[in-house]
Amino acid sequence: MLLRILSAVLLAPPLIYLILYGTNQHFFLLILPVAGGLLYEWQNLSGKQSRAKLLLHLSIAWLLLWVNYAGFERYSSLIIVTALFIMVASSLVDYQPDKKVIAGWSFDFVGLVYCIVPLILLLKINTNWSGSYVVFLLFVIWATDSGAYFSGKFFGVKKLAPKLSPGKTWVGFYGGCIGGMLAGFVGSTIFSFAFPLWQAILMGIIISLTGQLGDLAESLLKRESGIKDSGNLIPGHGGLLDRLDSVLFAAPVYYLLLTWLATAKTVSIGSLSFAG
To answer: Helix, strand or coil for residue 136?
Structure first.
């Protein structure tokens, strides 16, 4: 527990500072190694490491991130179709009767969607709004994790999903929701967002719920793969997938909420904003 807290104390402040005061280019450069780490750990879940496959997936991921950063997102579909064609063609050329090819295609494609689409949306949030909106998401997720951990540790009895994640309890689940709600209140006050306070609180609850769902989903992935942690990059926290599982699920929902609020408040054709 001490190692877990120490890692958070050392890593969180520079990360927050970079997101809040860095440029879009800084955020893009931050996302690139994160994408690589997530894809590496995703491949570990399959129990088979392939440098060629990792290089292919990383190239696809970085290209998708770049076109969305550079404003060429209209080419995203072309990149995805081309990537699928390459994945299928390489499997046909290297086919072995004992290989589960279709299952491999599914695993690879889901990995790209699971790991990379949320990063693209975080990039869009940072570009269309600001880094403070990204920090708000992280703040809610961290508050949810802390609320769930401490309330579950000291008061939790009834298990939430005993066969999936024995350490999680219903009390921890509710504690996480309360943590997310409080983070929505505090975060909105700190950053002075344009939307009303009640919307920030509601957003905090929704992010908390989707984040906890993402945590359980990653527990399922690890159970299926027979591993305890996705990696050991962060002392006390495991790998990037362990640390970002909630963010990966919450980011798409958060992006949709921000987009809905933006389009409801403005009729401008340009970059999304809360003006009006």
So the answer is: helix
